[in-house]
């Protein structure tokens, strides 16, 4: 056991440390800040799902906001109209979204990457109007209100005892619900990636024709990826609705789908830790960007004031372009590259130089 | 019957707008195999530029070509500065970059002009003419006329001039074109410029109808996608025909079938059905899948 | 001053080096053949001259170094390359392909006369002018490529396997036309061919490449009659 611990790659330690920090967070920060981190976790879950689709099976979706909406509305309708227990609705929301995603994954098989992006983009734009129509069910433009769930008594008491302070708030409880859900879903995704489905999907991503030729059920895995990613997005949407207490067509605009994709890419596609990094990035960037940019002395004040006044969108867009040009493997990719460079510097070049010429940009 | 004719005619007018934006998408797709998700936002920004020029006293008929020229230059600049460094990147990276551009333009427009919708001055009166018993507004007629003229000029440029020939060659086969002395890189930049110009036209034409605001083009781009996909994403002619078909169909469907609020869903349905049944659209070439 | 002078050129794709120091020279108006087995580096040599491959060494066109020049600029300096596969733009018509040959020229009267010659050599091109180039057969595409190269009025033509996949009679007529163009327009030709015999019939000098180096060079007339060379390098 000890030897296994010692030989575990650094990444495992990182994840364990992260889990510890996350579990203890509500003890350290305010209740409001816990709710912010809940949203980060929600984004992370959605991004994990998209990561499976894009990073592992190589299909693009610009419409995952629609699946979040589906999950959120499923929960909202079940809770407010059918008075179901909200905890039960979370997996139900996931299943509903997952099923729809799986079904949509079937025609998606026929679309090339670009056309799939186009079709899912159109889905994202259309979603608000599709929600508004059946207004008896969805509450139309006004949406559905939900009361924030009360933590169970044992949790309230435990929290009060441990912190020697107030009982657990609804926001903190939702934080733990999201954390637990996220951890479970992370574990599921991680295992899937490490075993055959993950390998199969990566093979498909790297070359569909070759994968098919080696006997992999390409269609099966691709639709599975679609369904799984939609499941994750549905769960995230359900949690989103619960934590904000309100769903309406306007809470699921195109920008949301875009944010999830950005989070997946910036975090680093196909990486394990990427989704969390991406989730944090996507949540905090709009808030932090205006503050940090104006704090930079080296940017002339005229330019930085443009960024501040223009709001997050301009910074977002500009930053995204810059990242895509210079670091297309996302932050995790950058970090991994830096880590490798640092390690080889520290350990000395133990690797024998292969004498290869560097890749040549001029080749025809 | 009269109502039907009116719907068809106004559908043709919106079709002209969709056709322009769809043509922009097709031009860039031909140049780089990429769908420019920022095309709508670029068009919106151009409309704002036109608005600003007119507000400063310029006549519409001077502001229009000037804005088109500015849009052209802007398109070239974007290709040189943003797209060219990542020309060989995978599709996903390029898609995200264009999404980034879209966000950038949207935010910039919001910053510079605010989010309050404005009315855009139009040189065409809102009165209606009586055409074959149906009433069609001069506005719609004007849109049809201007769109037709600009699209015709683009057609002549691409098909009848040496420059257009070089641009087409560069997008179809850059390697072979280089061996013929075509400056491929610049031709791609010109392609972006031209696409930007045509897209700007659609923005300026639609602004008087929709009210000018940063999110103006977000639904129009979906109609343009439908038009481009229906016509065949590689075919400029397909973009125009597709635009007209989508314009009329959506109008009719909105009036008779599903109601105005689901017109966008109709466009979405067109996209999905075409992509599943005949992905190359009406005029597209069947492509061979390269292994 | 030579039309083309390559000195100790090394070139390759990424980590793989293909040319290991190739030197050759072409005089103005001369036809030179470049022979050798598959993989010897013949096509790479042509690509290198046109700037499609990263290279080291010296390449000069009429005394002017081609180092760091882009493909299009090298072409504009007077080099026409008909690649393997002919480089026909199949999305365009026959006429449009031809027009891409002369699109850089200013002397419109001469261009008109040149079109006359092209259609005289290759009547099928006039018949199919307005049809898509994809409707042409292999031999006809080769004719289109050659006609287009003629219209470019280059100083140097690089021809990569013009006989590939063509019937013997067609090959014969195409090579006669190449000889004609060379004679009338004083165009230098670097001819890459697997069919060593007709290449040597056409050319004054020959170079035989082997694994990226010049193994043998000399007058075509002499090499043709040299049994040892023919057997070891040319396979017949």
Could you walk me through the main structural features you see in this protein, from its secondary elements to its overall organization?
The complex is a heterotrimer of chains A (364), B (291) and C (236). Chain A is mainly α and 364 residues long. Helix content of chain A is 75%, strand content 1%. A two-stranded antiparallel ribbon of chain A has the order 1-2. Chain B has 291 residues and is an all-alpha fold. Chain B has a domain at 15-217. In chain B, 73% of the residues lie in helices and 3% in strands. In chain B, strand 1 and strand 2 (134-137) form a beta hairpin. In chain B, helix 2 (39-55) packs across helix 8 and helix 6 packs across helix 8 (184-210). Chain C has 236 residues and is α/β, with parallel strands linked by helices. Chain C has ten helices and ten strands. In chain C, 47% of the residues are buried. The mean pLDDT of chain C is 89. At the A-B interface, helix 6, helix 13, helix 15 and helix 16 of A face helix 4, helix 9 and helix 11 of B.
Quick synopsis:
The complex is a heterotrimer of chains A (364), B (291) and C (236). By secondary structure, chain B is an all-alpha fold.
Q: Number of DSSP helices of chain C?
A: 10
Strand content of chain A: under 5%
SSE class of chain C: alpha/beta
**Radius of gyration of chain C over all CA atoms, rounded:** 17 Å
Which helices and strands, and how do they pair?
The complex is a heterotrimer of chains A (364), B (291) and C (236).
Chain A: H1 2-7, H2 10-28, H3 31-56, H4 64-80, H5 86-108, H6 113-132, H7 135-138, E1 144-145, H8 153-163, H9 170-194, H10 196-206, H11 208-213, H12 218-244, E2 246-247, H13 254-267, H14 274-295, H15 301-310, H16 312-326, H17 330-347
Antiparallel strand pairs in A: 1-2
Chain B: H1 2-32, H2 39-55, H3 60-83, H4 91-113, E1 128-131, E2 134-137, H5 138-160, H6 162-172, H7 174-178, H8 184-210, H9 217-231, H10 236-257, H11 263-277
Antiparallel strand pairs in B: 1-2
Helix pairs in contact in B: 1-5, 1-8, 1-9, 1-10, 2-3, 2-4, 2-8, 2-9, 3-8, 5-6, 5-8, 6-8, 9-10, 9-11, 10-11
Chain C: E1 4-13, E2 16-26, E3 31-36, H1 42-49, E4 54-61, E5 64-65, H2 71-76, E6 79-82, H3 94-102, H4 108-121, H5 123-127, H6 138-151, E7 156-160, H7 168-185, E8 188-192, H8 196-202, E9 205-210, E10 213-219, H9 220-224, H10 227-234
Parallel strand pairs in C: 3-8, 3-9, 6-7, 7-8
Antiparallel strand pairs in C: 1-2, 1-4, 4-5, 9-10
